């Protein structure tokens, strides 16, 4: 039976993983495009990667919008969402209306941040949601052109809040099904050459999300607030390096209190993350800095706001994160207000 995958958010991450999934046996990958629709419908995606070489990926179907995908009559096994997570701007779970078929479709989220799964679980309570965290460096340099720079690590786990990890025999049928669908999705990624794809439990995947937040919540806002510093530049600056370490420690000491268990010993420590960033001279900036520089909205809520709120619900404050959040939110709001003023003239 053909496995049908639909990508919503066919930018850097979405198109890169789409191009790998399309190589799995009996798998057809289609995309819903937005600003890159004209380019992709004419020429497909051109992908350049140090690991996989240069190739063209032509989606099975390229849709200009959700309605076209609904009208195609195709039934989707996996709907992978890799838009920028901007819950303060738009609820992207809405786009899945009419596309999710209960009992057949699973939703796969490949996005940074915490709490990204909730809107999908709320809107589609009977549907399996898989939560994905990727460490990859990729960019869409022009419409339909994807530059993969490095790394291919993608960790995927079923989103089963409230369920205890444990022996399969103790799980409900819905949980067993979610674990099985998760396993199959990771197999598809591996079949597409993504050897670093890894299957996780719900609890461990949430630990991976918190650990990634330690990196994103320290580097991303600090780069924007320091005027567009590179990761390497920040890690090598004594004061800024100390600040990054402090933010990472705050996140990593809060995570076990929120999750109710220690983070695995194999996860990199703040010192290890800093040392590797000090050595990485690629000159790369966090995506949030690029979003800010290009006048786009930043993923502030899922990277800063949600961790703060989730911790606060447990009575824990994260003062370093809170300061970054407050400053960045106001910076963004001021820019939006300036734009509105200019629009009025
Ligand atoms: N890039 C990386 O190296 C990297 C690494 C790790 C994690 N991540 C995370 O992965 C997620 C995706 O990031 P990205 O870098 O791939 O972003 P991106 O290149 O900006 O791609 C997002 C894509 O989603 C599209 N989109 C947004 N709303 C849509 C809608 N309603 N309908 C159809 N398409 C829509 C955008 O279209 P438009 O162009 O029209 O806006 C864009 O093509 C983020 O959460 C990010 O933090 C990224």
From TrEMBL:
GO terms for molecular function: 2-dehydropantoate 2-reductase activity. Its EC number is 1.1.1.169. Residues 5-159 form the Ketopantoate reductase N-terminal domain. The lineage of its organism: Eukaryota, Fungi, Dikarya, Ascomycota, Pezizomycotina. Keywords: NADP, Oxidoreductase. The keyword NADP applies. Catalyzes the NADPH-dependent reduction of ketopantoate into pantoic acid. Belongs to the ketopantoate reductase family. One of its GO terms (cellular component) is cytoplasm. One of its GO terms (biological process) is pantothenate biosynthetic process. This is 2-dehydropantoate 2-reductase. InterPro entries: 6-PGluconate_DH-like_C_sf, 6PGD_dom2, ApbA, KPA_reductase, KPR-Related, KPR_N, NAD(P)-bd_dom_sf. It catalyses: (R)-pantoate + NADP(+) = 2-dehydropantoate + NADPH + H(+). The keyword Manganese does not apply. SUPFAM superfamilies: 6-phosphogluconate dehydrogenase C-terminal domain-like, NAD(P)-binding Rossmann-fold domains. Gene3D superfamilies: N-(1-d-carboxylethyl)-l-norvaline Dehydrogenase, domain 2, NAD(P)-binding Rossmann-like Domain. Residues 206-332 form the Ketopantoate reductase C-terminal domain.
């Amino acid at each position: 039976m053909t496995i049908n995958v639909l990508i919503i958010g066919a930018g850097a991450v979405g198109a890169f993983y789409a191009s790998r999934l399309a190589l799995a046996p009996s798998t057809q990958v289609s995309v819903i495009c937005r600003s890159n629709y004209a380019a992709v419908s004419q020429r497909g995606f051109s992908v350049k990667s140090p690991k996989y070489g240069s190739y063209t990926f032509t989606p099975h179907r390229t849709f200009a919008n959700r309605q076209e995908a609904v009208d195609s009559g195709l039934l989707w096994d996996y709907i992978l969402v890799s838009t920028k997570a901007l819950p303060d701007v738009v609820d992207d779970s809405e786009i899945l209306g009419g596309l999710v078929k209960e009992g057949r479709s699973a939703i796969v989220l490949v996005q940074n941040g915490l709490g990204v799964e909730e809107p999908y679980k709320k809107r589609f309570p009977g549907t399996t949601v898989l939560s994905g965290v990727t460490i990859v460096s990729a960019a869409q340099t022009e419409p339909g052109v994807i530059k993969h720079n490095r790394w291919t690590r993608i960790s995927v786990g079923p989103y089963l809040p409230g369920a205890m990890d444990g022996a399969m025999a103790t799980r409900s049928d819905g949980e067993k099904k979610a674990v099985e669908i998760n396993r199959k999705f990771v197999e598809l990624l591996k079949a597409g050459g993504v050897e670093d794809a890894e299957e996780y439990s719900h609890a461990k995947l949430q630990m991976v999300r918190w650990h990634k937040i330690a990196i994103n919540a320290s580097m991303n806002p600090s780069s924007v607030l320091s005027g567009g510093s590179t990761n390497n530049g920040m890690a090598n600056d004594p004061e800024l390096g100390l600040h990054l370490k402090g933010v990472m420690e705050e996140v990593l000491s809060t995570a076990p209190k929120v999750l109710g268990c220690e983070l695995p010993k194999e996860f990199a420590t703040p010192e290890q993350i800093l040392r590797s960033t000090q050595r990485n001279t690629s000159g790369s900036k966090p995506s949030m800095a690029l979003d800010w520089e290009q006048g786009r909205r930043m993923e502030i809520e899922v990277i800063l706001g949600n961790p703060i709120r989730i911790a606060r619900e447990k009575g824990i404050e994260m003062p370093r994160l809170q300061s970054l959040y407050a400053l960045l939110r106001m910076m963004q709001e001021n820019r939006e207000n300036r734009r509105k003023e200019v629009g009025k003239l």
